[in-house]
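lol forgot to send this yesterday, sorry. struct tokens for the thing we talked abt
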């Protein structure tokens, strides 16, 4: 597997992580933070999506667009989550 994938999988639960492939780790953390309120994922750590977005240099508008995109594909995500859980 590519090193950024390995690193992200290994340290995505460390919210204070700084290091190699940090932006990939932050993207996974942000995805987890945005999916958790929708009942998707198994992340139990507290999330601050605004802080994660800021660390990725995403604006409030960017973050809102991500949220809107998740709302649009929410049904598909629910189906996928159901298939993965089965």
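and heres what i got for the seq, position by position
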């Amino acid at each position: 597997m590519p090193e950024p994938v390995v690193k992200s999988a290994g340290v995505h639960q460390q919210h204070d992580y700084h290091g190699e492939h940090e932006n990939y780790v932050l993207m996974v953390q942000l995805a987890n933070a945005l999916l958790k309120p929708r009942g998707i994922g198994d992340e139990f750590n507290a999330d601050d999506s605004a802080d994660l977005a800021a660390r990725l240099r995403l604006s409030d508008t960017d973050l809102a667009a991500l949220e809107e995109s998740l709302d649009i594909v929410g049904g598909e995500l629910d189906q996928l989550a159901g298939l993965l859980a089965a």
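The CA atoms of residues 50 and 60 lie 8 Å apart. anyway ping me if u want another try
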